[in-house]
Design goal:
Elements (H helix, E strand, L loop, with lengths): L2 H15 L19 H13 L5 H14 L4 H7 L12 E2 L2 E2 H17 L3 H7 L7 H11 L22 H11 L25 H9 L10 H14 L7 H10 L4
Antiparallel strand pairs: 1-2
Helix pairs in contact: 1-11, 2-8, 6-7, 9-11
């Protein structure tokens, strides 16, 4: 396929998969339970944090997280007492356990009380070309309070070579246009043009087959290469093609 044919093919797949009917199998259904900005972004961040492994398990455990936060995540985070944290003790998703969950609650409280919230932390540290420096800066802010060493592995750092798939997915949810009722378009301060595709085994394999990506590893260098390719197709909203790449890989075994 030449570039125009490829663009037409991917645009059609975006229309097919950027569709609410796929929410029932996607972790983004969790923040769709909420109506206020803070509840949506907190539930989205926590869900994205555990978004690896079996999708059914991710969704089940994200629902458990929300139950443990009394289905009121922002209020819980801002006003919890130590006794309230006892109900988090049984949580585990793969290598993310109650120790990590407890710290995430404390770190999020610090961000909302002392840094103006999640959107402001990412906006204050973003530049005009890429969101990746903001992700690295966010990790520093997130762990500025006392923390268990084990928990740092659950927030990726692009400056250390990570493709940061889960945070890039969360940022897509928050920033991209919400008119199709899939992504939310909540964060108006950040341009979708600087977002990066949530690069995983599915999107990576499809991108290689379509010659959008040559690098074999799914790392920060591969992400930069894919960013470049997708921005040639749509410089204003390159990450919409995540729907096409992921859909082709997961649902069509492309």
């Amino acid at each position: 396929m030449n570039r125009e044919e490829l663009k037409d093919f991917l645009e059609a797949k975006v229309i097919q998969y950027n569709n609410p009917k796929f929410l029932e199998t996607d972790p983004i259904q969790i923040p769709h339970q909420f109506n206020t900005k803070e509840d949506i972004e907190i539930s989205g961040f926590l869900t994205a944090t555990i978004a690896w492994g079996n999708r059914k398990s991710i969704i089940t455990n994200a629902h458990r997280m929300m139950e443990m936060l009394d289905h009121d995540p922002y209020n819980f985070i801002m006003n919890y007492e130590n006794k309230d944290l006892q109900q988090l003790q049984s949580f585990v998703h793969r290598t993310f356990n109650h120790v990590d969950f407890l710290f995430f609650i404390k770190a999020l409280q610090n961000i909302y009380k002392n840094h103006g919230g999640l959107e402001k932390v990412f906006f204050d540290n973003s530049d005009s070309t890429s969101i990746q420096p903001a992700i690295a800066a966010f990790k520093k802010v997130f762990f500025e309070i006392a923390h268990p060493a084990r928990t740092t592995k659950h927030v990726s750092d692009p400056l250390k070579g990570s493709a940061a798939k889960r945070i890039n997915m969360f940022l897509r949810w928050m920033v991209r246009d919400g008119s199709t009722n899939v992504d939310f378009g909540l964060w108006k301060s950040i341009s979708p043009a600087i977002l990066s595709c949530p690069l995983d085994v599915h999107s990576g394999n499809v991108a290689r087959k379509l010659k959008l990506l040559k690098r074999k590893q799914n790392d920060a260098k591969a992400l930069a290469e894919l960013d470049k390719s997708l921005r040639k197709l749509d410089p204003l909203d390159p990450v919409k093609y995540d729907f096409a790449l992921f859909g082709l890989g997961v649902f069509e075994k492309f």
